[in-house]
Structures are given as structure tokens and as C-alpha cells.
Amino acid sequence: MTSLTPSQMETGTSLAIIAASTEPLLFLTGDLTILAASASFCRVFQIDPPKAPGRRLSEIGSGEWGMPKLTSLLKATAAGSAEIEAYEIDLDRKGQERRHLVVNARKLDVADSNNVRLLVAIADVTAARAEAKLKDELVREKTVLLQEVQHRVANSLQIIASVLLQSARRVQSEEARGHLTDAHQRVMSIAAVQHHLALSGSQDVALRSYLSQLCESLSASMISDPTVLAIVVDVDASVVDANKSVSLGLIVTELVINALKHAFPAHRHGKIVVAYRCRGPEWSLSVKDDGVGMSTGYPQAKAGLGTGIVEALARHLQARIDVADSSPGTAITISDEGVAATRAAAV
């Protein structure tokens, strides 16, 4: 009875393991001759199991495995000068769908240094890549549709604002005219918000350009003489998510409108400064004017719609409102400073 050498026993064990594997595996010699192919490999790639061992890799199937790049990489791996990790290839078989594969190959340490052995693992990721591509396409379509909806909303808001302005010009009642004018200004500011969000898509929003554009819109609709009144934007390089940007934009709209209506009577000269700063988790938004001050500023409009809107938005942002006499003028600050620390301490 002929006894087996340790090398032969090791090879026999390896062949048995490869053949029984549930993953697509190949066991190759240094010249890319197949010693064993797993049942999974033969099933997935439609190879007749008894015909695979003893043949070169390029000879199985209809020769589709004889890809020059793959052959070169496998030979380099056998020579010890390379190692294949997650190498992606397309497998083309006549009359069949192209398959997208990920190949990993490693040179094995064996007792006989003259007999090079390669273990090759092949994963068919065709379905996974097709699913990922479909998801990407759906995300792109959703983004395009969202931008289109935002554009349409912005356009509709501008039409509504135009109707409100025309109505304000026709009514006889000063009170009704004032309410319609306020509504027009608010709708125009929201239209500006929607327009900016449409340009930003579903991405985060850079506050500097966003609030600058918003204040330009407010200035154009409410300031008849820019040499008398001006709105200055002083915002850092903060970037926030779209939801937060909407709340901040609406707060700025209400506070700027309030300052323009109450802080500068009798064509008083002045400016309104809109500022935003962020330091880690803490942030602050302020609207400061150099107008007539507290007596005719924010407190007078405390029970108004604008004040209610600002307070509701501040609660939504879990922020606080501080009103101060800035001598001259009034400074209103919406901030998360200290609020975040209080929440953390409570936890």
C-alpha cells in the first residue's frame, strides 16, 4: 500500500474543503491550472464540475475566464509580487447577461515551495450593483421632483403676493391695507426661502448666502430709498440642514419686517444688522437696529402675529429669545447658548 506524503495529504484536504465550500472558490496551481472548483462556483457560472479540474482557467466555459488583466494579476500573485483584493471585473458570456464580479486571490503557504497554490474567491455582485444603481436613480429622480415642486411653490407664492399687493392698493380701509401689505411681505419672504431651497436641493444650506438673499428680497420689497435705510448681513460660514434654515429664515423675516415698521418713523435714517454665529453646538441669531429703541420697537408689537410666529419658531428650535435696548435701537437675539448645556445637565 502506497503511503501519502504530508504534501499530498495537505493537498487532498484542501481539495476536499474547496469542493465542499458553499462560496464560489477556485484552487489553482502557479500556471493557473484548476486543482479544484467549488460546487458553488460551478453552479453559479454554469461549469460542468467533473470537467474543471486539470484544465487551465482560460479553458473552462467558452474561454470567458481567459481575461488578460485577470490572468496577469493571478500570475503576479503566484509569483508573490501582488495580491488581488476586491478586483472588479465584468464577465461576458455569449448569449448571456454580463455579470459583475469581485475577485480576491491569495498565494498559499505550502510545504513544497515548488508547487505554488492560489486560492481564488469570486463574488457575483451583479444584483447588488443593479439594486444600488436603481436606488441612486430613484434618489436623483426624487431630488429633481423636489426641486421642481419647490420652484412651483415659489412661483405660486409670488403670484399670491402679487394678488395681495393689488388688493392692498384697491381697498379704502387703511387697516385692511396694512394687513394685506403685511401678508404680501410675508408671502414674498417665504417665496424667497422656497427659491433658495430649490437651488440648494436637498442638501444643507449655507446661511451666509441664504440670509443675504432673503434680506435683499426684504429690502427690495420694503425699503423705498436704500440711502435712508439698509439691511446688513453679518453671518459666519455656518451650514445648517434645510429644516433649520427655513425656521431661521422666517424668524429673520419677521424681525426685519418689525424693525422696518416700527424702529424708523418719519423717514429716520438707520440700518438693521442681521448676524449669526455658531460655536460648536451653540448658535445665536440676532437682528439689531439703531432706530428709536424699545419704546416703539419690539415690545409694542408683542401681541402681534409676527411676535407669535417668532416665539413659535424659537420653541421649535429649542432656543430662547432675548430682547435688549442697544442704545440706540433694539437688539433681539434667538440663541441656543446655554440651552444645550441645560438639556445635557438634565440628562
Explain how this protein is built.
This protein has 347 residues and is an alpha+beta fold. The chain folds into three domains: 9-124, PAS domain (Beta-Lactamase), CATH 3.30.450; 128-203; 204-347, Heat Shock Protein 90 (2-Layer Sandwich), CATH 3.30.565.10. The chain is built from nine helices and twelve strands. It has helices at 6-20, 39-44, 68-78, 126-170, 174-200, 207-222, 242-262, 305-316, 339-346, and strands at 25-29, 34-37, 84-91, 99-108, 117-124, 205-206, 229-235, 239-240, 270-279, 282-289, 320-325, 330-335. The strands form three sheets. The chain has a five-stranded antiparallel sheet, with helices on both faces. The protein is elongated, with a radius of gyration of 36 Å. Mean pLDDT is 82; it is low at 1-10, 296-303 and 340-347.
Topology (elements, then pairings):
Layout: H1 6-20, E1 25-29, E2 34-37, H2 39-44, H3 68-78, E3 84-91, E4 99-108, E5 117-124, H4 126-170, H5 174-200, E6 205-206, H6 207-222, E7 229-235, E8 239-240, H7 242-262, E9 270-279, E10 282-289, H8 305-316, E11 320-325, E12 330-335, H9 339-346
Parallel strand pairs: 7-9
Antiparallel strand pairs: 1-2, 1-5, 3-4, 4-5, 6-8, 9-10, 10-12, 11-12
Helix pairs in contact: 4-5, 5-6, 5-7, 6-7, 7-8
